[in-house]
Specification:
about 15% helix, transport, 2 domains, 17 strands, Immunoglobulin-like, alpha+beta, globular, transmembrane helix, phosphatidylcholine binding
Length: about 350
């Protein structure tokens, strides 16, 4: 299948990614791919998990552990600035979800195919001419890391690639599904964190300046920094949309803020299926990948209701908790789909032109 996958990837680059890059910044309006060759080394699938519980009968959900390490040749240019750059190798490792839905009673039995990463994959790109690219006005504030994040997030839930296999399928509903629920995260406090700041050349151990990074898919939140405290209290609240479960997880990492490089203070991974089942979890969690430290979280699973019958009750409840979040707690979800536009006015820009 690899040669045909490469054809699809080239089409994706030219028809989807190239216009998106051009529209992202005025300085990139002349951006284009001049060559796309993904190479002969195929993608590897190291494992497959098929879900049989908590899934709709008209769908099949697969999680693929994928790994790609290959030499490639992708050349790009920005004609306006005579800038050329390229990619000569790519590594990508992560869990890709494949959803086959809806299942139908006629061939090919599957109405459409959706692909996306549940969380940001490990992505490494070996650039050629990256400094040329970063010299372009409007891009000089970017870095290699930021570019990788932009590319990764394009592939991560809720973004998805949906390929219809029959003409009758409702593609918009598959490409932009309604969230399964909302996760309200009360990021409360931590205890007994490691002291990373040292004095007298490391002889005296001090405290830390902890903060947290919270991720659900490509939704990322960062807490405030608590200075010089191994038992910090944040008392912050975040709300994240959950589009897929089983499989999606709440990821939390704690760091000690430093002038140069922030030190790692521990991590936590929580399966959202457990949160949905319990509806409310208020617990102390032991931090992973460190010798000590605990994190206190309160997690609420909020289900989307089709009518506004309970709105008054919800509004009363969140008014009682109004001090828990800087911008308030949500009472409802507004979903807006921007589908297309037609007959837009054409604007012409004439520069240094003498009209007579």
């Amino acid at each position: 299948m690899w040669p045909f996958i490469c054809q699809f990837i080239e089409k994706l680059f030219r028809e989807t990614i190239e216009p998106a890059v051009r529209g992202a910044n005025n300085h990139l309006s002349t951006f284009s791919f001049t060559k796309i060759d993904i190479g002969h080394q195929p993608l590897r699938i190291n494992g497959v998990k098929v879900y049989t519980e908590n899934v709709d009968k008209r769908q099949i959900i697969l999680d693929l552990q994928i790994s790609f390490v290959g030499n490639c040749e992708i050349d790009l240019e920005i004609k306006r600035y005579f800038c050329r750059a390229g990619v000569k190798s790519i590594q990508i490792h992560g869990t890709m979800r494949v959803i086959l839905e809806p299942l139908i009673g006629d061939m090919p039995l599957i109405g459409a195919l959706s692909l996306f990463f549940l969380r940001k994959p490990l992505l490494e790109i070996n650039w050629t001419g990256l400094t040329n690219l970063l010299d372009v006005p409007g891009l000089n504030g970017l870095s290699d890391t930021i570019i990788l994040d932009i590319i990764s997030n394009y592939l991560v839930l809720p973004n998805r690639i949906t390929v219809p296999l029959v003409s009758e399928v409702q593609i918009a509903q598959l490409r932009f599904p309604i969230p399964k629920g909302v996760l309200r995260i009360h990021f409360i406090e931590a205890q007994d964190l490691e002291g990373k700041d040292t004095y007298l050349k490391g002889i005296v151990k001090g405290k830390s300046d902890p903060y947290g990074i919270i991720r659900v898919g490509n939704q990322i939140f960062q807490s405030k920094v608590i200075k010089e405290n191994l038992n910090p209290k944040w008392n912050e609240v975040y709300e994240a949309l959950v589009y897929e479960h089983p499989g999606q997880e709440l990821e939390i990492e704690l760091f000690d803020e430093d002038p140069d490089k922030d030190d790692f203070l521990g991590s936590l991974m929580i399966d959202l299926i457990e949160v949905e089942k319990e509806r409310l979890l208020d617990e102390w969690f032991t931090l992973d990948e460190v010798s000590k430290g605990k994190l206190h979280l309160k997690l609420e699973w909020l289900t989307l209701m089709p009518t506004a019958d309970n709105l008054d009750k919800v509004l009363t409840s969140i008014r009682a908790d109004k001090d828990q979040a800087n911008d308030g707690l949500s009472s409802a979800l507004l979903i807006l789909y921007l589908d297309s536009a037609r007959n837009l006015p054409v604007s012409y820009i004439l520069k240094d032109t003498l009209l007579s």
